[in-house]
């Protein structure tokens, strides 16, 4: 191509670029070309969004039911503290009173078909070692909360092994209770028989005779000599413990094989109660005592929402991390002394602490972001083509607004040209003076709209060209109908220079 040809081509392209209609078609072609190049990305992103939406985790339930124990028991009292933590985070924890661990397991195993969250027991506080026989594959351990020793108080000579209780009257609570369940497992490990028949004859070779009394009733019967021994599962700070240690003729059993029991039963901890721990002034107990301690466990259904698990753990940590007479600060809650597989979210909590989002965001915000994070990839995929499309779309939209007014100018100019050249003889409507009055009114209204229109600075040249062309055509119309003047170009109320 010669230099002359190149110059002609360049001048032609430059001339075309000054034609608004040509620029309009060029802009529209660029938009459609960008759309065609990006449609596959958009389709894939929308598909990923749809799949991601189906995989989004459900929102945490607004209400959770926890089974505890008697209203005056420790389980119920601690659950009330958890409930306050839930309330502070905008959720409700319904604390349900029960008969104890055995009933709690039954409630956790009930079918949920057709029941709302407010009707289903999703989590419970239970005593470790009390799970009834059967399939518990649908249960998960969240944490062990604190230790509850097995206290065996007896009359007579010192007792250090369970076989020494053969033939004795032992109160360990009603059949099916948590305390009774623990004691039966300990007796079975020693191949000791037992019976619930109160008429069985006392003998060193006869079974241990269980009495259904528990708590205060059992303690009073022991002090009155109606029983030979009682088994209690209580906190060291419970008033009954200090009361029985003060009672003349009543002794506390120290387990001789405490370490062996802890190895055989992983849900048990062997703990040492140093002398004077219960009452320093009276030096009670008067010597070191070795006890076996099951743990209060937080157990849930396997489908409990992960955010609820974390919220329970945060509440439990605040309630129990300070320690007590049997555990040091920070030892509990933990995943020790549990009976079921540890919930995945709970295991991660104990490894790494609370999730990152819940450390810095309110619970509701952290739960929402956690649910939506699976949509981040398709959203990022969608943003890429949209970012490519947005600029040409913006150009096309702004110029289309300008070209809309140019169509009005072109139609008015066509009628005026027909009248001037005399070509409107066959188009009487074009010669109607009232028609020009209407056109003038249209241009005046158009100028008013333009004065109120907001246009980006990069398009002000085209905008001002439109203003000038509008004023130019308006002057021609006014001159044609014998009027003078034009439009005040200082729109917006600004005085002329």
Automatic annotation (TrEMBL):
- Gene3D superfamilies, alphabetized: Periplasmic binding protein-like II
Q: InterPro entries this protein is in?
A: TRAP_TAXI
Q: What is this protein called?
A: C4-dicarboxylate ABC transporter substrate-binding protein
Asked whether the keyword Membrane is assigned, the reply is: yes
* Segments passing through the bilayer: 38-56, 374-396
Asked if the keyword Membrane belongs to this entry, the reply reads: yes
The UniProt keyword set, sorted, is: Membrane, Transmembrane, Transmembrane helix
Q: Extract the PANTHER family matched here.
A: SLL1037 PROTEIN
């Amino acid at each position: 191509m010669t230099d002359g040809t190149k110059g002609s081509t360049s001048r032609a392209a430059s001339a075309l670029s000054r034609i608004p209609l040509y620029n309009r078609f060029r802009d529209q072609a660029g938009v459609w070309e960008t759309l065609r190049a990006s449609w596959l990305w958009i389709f894939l992103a929308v598909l990923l969004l749809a799949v991601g939406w189906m995989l989004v985790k459900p929102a945490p339930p607004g209400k959770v039911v926890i089974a505890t124990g008697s209203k005056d028991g420790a389980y119920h009292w601690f659950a009330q503290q958890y409930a306050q933590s839930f309330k502070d985070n905008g959720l409700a924890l319904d604390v349900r009173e029960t008969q104890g661990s055995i009933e709690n397991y039954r409630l956790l195993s009930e079918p949920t078909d057709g029941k709302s969250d407010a009707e289903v027991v999703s989590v419970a506080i239970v005593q470790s070692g009390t799970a009834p026989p059967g399939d518990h594959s649908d249960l998960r351990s969240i944490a062990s909360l604190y230790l509850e020793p097995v206290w065996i108080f007896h009359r007579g000579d010192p007792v250090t092994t369970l076989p020494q209780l053969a033939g004795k009257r032992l109160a360990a609570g009603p059949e099916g209770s948590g305390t009774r369940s623990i004691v039966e497992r300990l007796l079975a490990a020693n191949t000791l028989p037992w019976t619930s028949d109160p008429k069985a004859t006392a003998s060193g070779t006869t079974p241990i005779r269980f009495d259904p009394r528990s708590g205060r009733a059992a303690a009073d019967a022991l002090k009155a000599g109606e029983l030979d021994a009682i088994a209690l599962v209580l906190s060291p700070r419970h008033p009954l413990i200090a009361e029985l240690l003060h009672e003349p003729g009543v002794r506390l059993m120290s387990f001789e094989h405490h370490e062996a029991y802890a190895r055989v039963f992983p849900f048990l901890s062997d703990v040492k109660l140093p002398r004077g721990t219960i009452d320093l002034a009276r030096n009670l107990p008067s010597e070191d005592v070795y006890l076996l301690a099951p743990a209060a466990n937080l157990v849930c259904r396997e489908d409990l929402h992960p955010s609820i698990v974390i919220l329970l753990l945060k509440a439990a940590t605040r309630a129990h991390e300070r320690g007590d007479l049997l555990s040091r600060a920070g030892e509990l809650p933990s995943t020790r002394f549990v009976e079921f597989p540890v919930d995945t979210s709970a295991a991660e909590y104990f490894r790494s602490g609370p999730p990152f989002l819940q450390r810095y965001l309110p619970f509701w915000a952290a739960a929402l972001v956690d649910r939506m994070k699976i949509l981040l990839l398709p959203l990022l995929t969608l943003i890429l083509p949209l970012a490519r499309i947005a600029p040409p779309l913006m150009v096309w939209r702004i110029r289309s607004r300008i070209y809309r007014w140019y169509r009005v100018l072109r139609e008015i100019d066509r009628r005026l040209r027909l009248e001037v050249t005399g070509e409107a003889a066959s188009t009487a409507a074009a010669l109607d003076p009232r028609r020009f009055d209407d056109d003038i009114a249209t241009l005046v209204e158009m100028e008013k709209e333009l004065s109120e229109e907001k246009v980006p600075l990069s398009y002000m040249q085209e905008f001002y060209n439109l203003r000038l062309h509008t004023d130019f055509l308006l002057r021609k119309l006014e001159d044609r109908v014998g009027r003078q003047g034009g439009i005040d170009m200082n729109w917006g109320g600004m005085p002329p220079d």
